[in-house]
Design brief:
single chain, mainly beta, 41-stranded mixed beta sheet, six-stranded antiparallel beta sheet, 47 strands, about 10% helix, about 50% strand, elongated
Length: about 900
């Protein structure tokens, strides 16, 4: 009986325990279980929850969790933590909570001041980072992770472990995204001690995809290595950013692994919770192209070093008490030494600086000295120094404030002064005054002046600046006096100018720009005037635009002796970044004196390479879209190449400004002029140039007549028609004459010649007509036909059996003289037309036909060697000669 009762008691105990466990299991699956447990444990550990849901059996969900430590505050939003019932025994036995999956929308770590108020971006270094229990999270997913208001990680996937002594994070994926700087993807591992001094060991590798140019974007992948070691209060940081070689020969293109591969390396000692945070910095750049890293930056190839060195007499910062620069009254030194291998103007997307050297001495609150030396485009050197020490400080919110100061340019009256400057969180504000800046310096970096142009004048400006780099706002006034613009090559000489302009936000208003032309000696005001107004804007997405309206009043636009031009009218220019220049003009030429050169200046061909001289850089001129109307006016004189005429007419110009893209429409009349040709000063009876497209190929309608006395009734001349590139030239006479007679009248003023001198003159005139040496077209007729010889001779060339009259190697084949047939009858009847062509290096053929004969003669000259020549002849007479030449010195 006793045993039976004992068994029944045990059974009831087991059943009671089972029912209790079942009740606990059921209760653990309810929402009250998690809420009751949280209320019992959370307040003791500084934990707070909002909209808490879940159960002890399945996991936790909360809209917001907050964990308040002595120096830090941890906030988590949209939290979902799941665990399994079989993992709960590990929490009881080893104090370890095993979580297969944890999802957090936003995790934010913020430092706190001692009084409990939040301090954005600053605070004391933490002394411990312990958790109330050990924790293992197989997969933690964070939508956003922020530390002290700095850059945020997004899309974080990691494995997390805490064993009471150390936090370990195996980072599988993390992303830092920036609208302008692209996307940074990171992987690696982090180990952080839980007790002071919180030793950190961070090793991350990443890939930085830069969006270089819209649209479409072309990502440039940059490799990034990050290493950080040491106590959390004072870290040794090593950053290495590598750019891959860029195809197509860009500024940073090199072979992989070469010593000059594009990269940036920074070694620094950082105190994240001290001021200043950067204790020392040592950086190195190699073949760095900023445009490949930052889409709005100019193209560069930067190489050099920069460093921030602590005071020489001050001890290095220890792990517990970091020493700021300038401690003990000794200033720290910031040094910079940088070279740019490809300087250029801003307009070409380049950085104007070729070299930059600088040194700054600063302590905790004072910038004691600043010296800068800059080489602009390898042609101008600027040397700047700080006029007096300037105070600076870092505010509690992280902003940098610089007190009033001024920079002076050595040897120049240039001064840049500011009343104050603030910068922080990407925003800045300043008020400055600039005086004495040569305008030539200002436009040199912009690259808006063509080569050989010179600008004179000094710029003064009062400016107020604020905003961010992408949304900067500029307000103030700009002025300049005694402006001068000169180009000796183009004959431009403008002077006594002035400029008045305003900056309003992102707009530039040029209210008045005036320049005077050069006056004629003794005639004040005869040079005319250029007056212009303009409006420009910096675009929010990058780039700029500018529109200029100009009025020209009898302006001497060119003073070159061969190009004296005075013009009046209106012009409008519209220019924007990455777009062609649009130029609209309506001009009238008040006076022009154009002198055409007899021949163009000799130039080397594009395929000629001069040893010892670097090749010229290709020109990158701004493309132009032109739309202009030009009235040649009443006094447009043209002289040169035998022409003296007054041009009249109107032309419409459109397209580009190069000969291949320019289109002209209109008509130019050169009547009542003179043309020197054929040994005569011909009168232009009719001279019309009709343009319907290419400027070098107008339609020609010209009639040039030989001057005659009142008693002469015979008129002769030359008529030209067709296109300029393929003209048709013929003799003209009234009353009509045979061409031989018309040619005689044109050259001699009478009928056919009978004398030797007159005959020679006619021969030369005939050759001139055939080869176009009269200036009626470019190139000789022989060259256009692919011949080596085309001319008219008196008598035939040396024939077979005529001795050694033939030219050596055929170079003078067919020259007059020798044993050919003798001329008989009139000089014109003895004239011979010769056509010659070199068929090979040693083979030359010439065909001759008398102007009064029926048959012709073909002669072939073949050089067997230097002394032996074979001559063959067929036609009027047939034969062969073998000529051996002996030279006697």
């Amino acid at each position: 009986m006793t045993a039976r009762r004992l068994l029944m008691g045990l059974l009831l105990l087991v059943v009671g325990a089972a029912l209790t466990l079942a009740a606990l299991w059921i209760w653990a699956g309810s929402g009250q279980s998690l809420q009751w447990t949280w209320n019992q444990l959370a307040p003791a550990h500084g934990l707070q929850a909002q909209a808490l849901q879940g159960s002890l059996r399945e996991g936790l969900r909360a809209q917001r969790l907050r964990w308040v430590l002595e120096d830090w505050e941890v906030e988590a939003e949209d939290v979902a933590i799941a665990w399994r019932p079989q993992d709960l025994p590990t929490l009881r036995d080893r104090g370890l909570l095993h979580v297969p999956l944890a999802r957090i929308g936003t995790l934010r770590l913020t430092p706190r001041k001692r009084g409990g108020a939040a301090a954005p971006g600053a605070g004391p270094a933490p002394t411990r980072l312990t958790l109330p229990l050990n924790l293992q999270v197989d997969e933690a997913r964070l939508g956003r992770f922020e530390v002290a208001g700095g850059w945020a990680l997004r899309d974080v996937v990691a494995h997390y472990t805490y064993d009471g002594q150390q936090h370990q994070v195996q980072l599988r994926q993390a992303r830092v995204a920036h609208e302008s700087l692209g996307t940074l993807d990171l992987q690696g591992q982090v180990r952080l001690g839980a007790q002071a001094p919180l030793p950190l060991d961070l090793r991350l590798q990443g890939r930085w995809a830069m969006q270089t140019a819209p649209p479409p974007p072309s990502p440039q992948a940059l490799g990034l290595d990050i290493r950080a070691n040491g106590p959390l209060a004072l870290l040794d940081l090593h950053l290495l950013l590598r750019a891959p070689p860029v195809a197509g020969g860009s500024a940073g293109a090199t072979s992989p692994g070469s010593a000059s591969a594009p990269q940036a390396e920074v070694r620094a000692r950082v105190a994240p919770w001290s001021q200043p945070r950067w204790q020392s910095i040592d950086g190195r750049l190699a073949a760095l192209d900023l445009a490949a890293w930052w889409p709005k930056a100019p193209r560069t190839r930067l190489s050099g070093r920069f460093s921030l060195a602590p005071p020489a007499s001050a001890p290095g910062p220890g792990p517990d008490a970091p020493t700021p620069p300038g401690a003990g009254g000794k200033p720290a030194s910031l040094q910079l030494d940088m070279d740019n291998a490809i300087p250029g103007p801003w307009s070409e997307g380049r950085l104007p600086l070729a070299r930059l050297e600088g040194q700054a001495d600063l302590d905790a609150n004072l910038l004691r000295a600043l010296r800068l030396q800059m080489d602009v485009n390898r042609s101008t050197r600027w040397q700047l120094q700080l006029q007096a020490p300037v105070r600076w400080r870092r505010e509690a919110d992280g902003r940098l404030t610089l007190g009033p100061g001024a920079l002076l340019f050595d040897g120049l009256p240039v001064r840049l002064a500011w009343d104050g400057l603030q910068w922080g969180r990407g925003e800045w504000a300043a008020q400055a005054h600039l005086s004495g800046l040569p305008l030539a310096w200002a436009v040199q970096g912009l690259g808006i002046l063509p080569a050989g142009w010179r600008l004179r004048g000094n710029l003064e400006a009062d400016l107020r600046m604020s905003g961010t780099g992408a949304q900067a706002r500029w307000d103030g006034a700009l002025r300049a006096d005694e402006l001068a613009l000169r180009s000796v090559v183009d004959g431009i000489d403008l002077h006594s100018g002035s400029l008045r302009a305003r900056l309003v936000g992102r707009d530039l208003f040029i209210d008045d720009l005036q320049l005077l032309g050069l006056d004629t000696p003794g005639t004040p005001g005869s040079g005319g005037r250029l007056q212009a107004r303009a409006q420009g804007r910096w675009l929010p997405a990058g780039g700029w635009s500018l529109a200029i309206d100009a009025n020209l009043a009898q302006l001497r636009a060119s003073l070159r002796p061969d190009r004296l031009v005075t013009v009046s009218g209106q012009a409008r220019a519209e220019l924007a970044s990455r777009t062609p220049l649009r130029l609209h003009a309506d001009l009238r030429v008040d006076q022009a004196r154009i002198t055409l050169p007899d021949r163009a200046s000799p130039r080397l061909g594009v395929d000629v390479v001069v040893r010892g001289r670097p090749a010229d850089a290709p020109e990158t001129a701004v493309p132009v879209q032109l739309q202009a109307r030009v009235d040649l006016g009443p006094d447009f004189q043209v002289r040169g190449k035998g022409l003296e005429a007054q041009a009249r007419g109107r032309l419409n110009a459109s397209g580009g400004v190069t000969l291949g893209t320019l289109r002209l429409d209109g008509q130019v009349d050169l009547a009542s002029g003179r043309y020197q040709a054929f040994g005569q000063r011909l009168r232009l009876e009719r001279a019309l140039l009709r343009f319907t497209g290419a400027p070098l190929n107008p339609a020609l309608d010209l009639l040039a007549l030989r001057p005659t006395s009142p008693s002469e009734t015979q008129q002769v001349g030359v008529q030209v028609s067709g296109q300029a590139l393929s003209p048709r030239v013929r003799l003209w006479s009234d009353p009509a004459l045979p061409e031989a007679q018309a040619l005689s009248w044109l050259a001699l003023g009478q009928g056919s010649a009978a004398g030797g001198v007159e005959t020679a003159l006619l021969e030369d005139l005939a050759v001139t007509l055939l080869s176009r040496r009269a200036g009626l077209g470019g190139g000789t007729l022989a060259q256009r036909l692919g011949l080596d010889e085309l001319g008219v001779r008196q008598g035939s060339a040396s024939g077979v059996g005529g001795g050694a009259g033939g030219g050596q190697s055929g170079t003078q084949a067919g020259a007059s003289g020798g044993g050919g047939a003798q001329a008989s009858g009139s000089a014109l009847q003895g004239a011979t037309l010769a056509v010659g062509k070199r068929l090979a290096r040693d083979l030359y053929a010439v065909y001759e036909r008398g102007l009064s004969g029926v048959l012709g003669t073909l002669r072939v000259f073949y050089d067997i060697n230097r002394r032996l020549q074979l001559r063959l002849e067929a036609g009027d007479s047939n034969g062969a000669d073998l000529v051996y030449t002996v030279r006697i010195e």
